[in-house]
Amino acid sequence: MPGAYMKIAAAVIAGLMACSAGWAKEPAVLEQGRALLAGASYYDAVIALEPLLLQKDKSKAQQEAYIIADKACRKLVLEEHLLMREYETLYPLGSGTGPGDMKWEKILALNRLGAGITYDGMAGDYDYSYDLLRTLVKKYPDSKYAPAARFYVIRPGINDLAEVERELRELAAYVKKYPGLKEADLARLKTARINDNLWETLGQNGWPPFSSGDTDKDRERGAQSREKALKQYEKLLKGSKLDAATVKGIGERYKELKAFKISGRYYIISD
């Protein structure tokens, strides 16, 4: 029996030593990820965070790793479209030399780390749906990063009135719960843009996926949506945490909507 206890104790000590070694590496891994992100080496930043992104044990360092990797993926896919540009440079359209959009080694590597990047055939570009933030919120619901992250994981309502109304409810609930966050202003802006689109689709042409089948009822709903959009735009113009360029765009759209001009930009429609 004493021998058995000794073996168990040795195993526990070995496990603790392994954990300690891992914890000791966390600051270095985070620092490397931060530096690569700051230097615009977005792909390398995510890859550098692999030890933290894949570790099973929870830690504050892992929470920050999700945030850094999310910022990098936004740059790579949503903001600067760097992955698609690189892929098309390496494998020109029609050349027949590429491995396939989703079989490219960079996409495979990022998705192995939880990025969840997909390919949108209609847009001809990669898409990122904030899977890293979804993991963060699920794994660390009480994290200091969770309140902001919850905005980005609200699923968009597309091509279906019931889904659009579901998104509007979730956006309203988010604003009510986190009224002072910058993301609350983003939620208000998204709400305004959705209602702006509803005015156009219901009040102007009664696009089938959003139509009730009653033209008068659709126009009434469209008019109500226009008033809601104007009210949200006005609120944001009076004061928000949004950047100057965004606020300028809101002001321009507010004037257009006041003049009953359609925007031509769609947030609830995908062909």
Return the string of H and E elements: HHHHHHEEHHHHHH
Rounded to the nearest angstrom, the distance between the terminal CA atoms is: 70 Å
Radius of gyration over all CA atoms, rounded? 23 Å
Number of domains: 2
Query: Helix/strand/pairing class, anyone?
Result: mainly alpha
The count of DSSP E runs of length 2 or more, i.e. the number of strands, is: 2
Please state the overall shape, judged from the principal axes of the Cα atoms: globular
Record the strand order, biggest sheet: 1-2
**Fraction of residues in β-strands:** under 5%
Largest sheet: 2 strands, antiparallel
Can you walk through the features of this model?
This protein has two domains: about 1-140, no CATH class; about 155-260, no CATH class. It is globular and about 60 Å long. Helix 2 packs antiparallel against helix 4. A hairpin with a 4-residue loop joins strand 1 (about 120) and strand 2. It has helices at about 1-40, 40-50, 50-55, 60-80, 80-90, 105-110, 130-140, 145-150, 160-175, 180-205, 215-240, 245-260; strands at about 120, 125. A two-stranded antiparallel ribbon has the order 1-2. About 65% of the residues lie in helices and about 0% in strands. The chain has about 270 residues and is mainly alpha-helical.
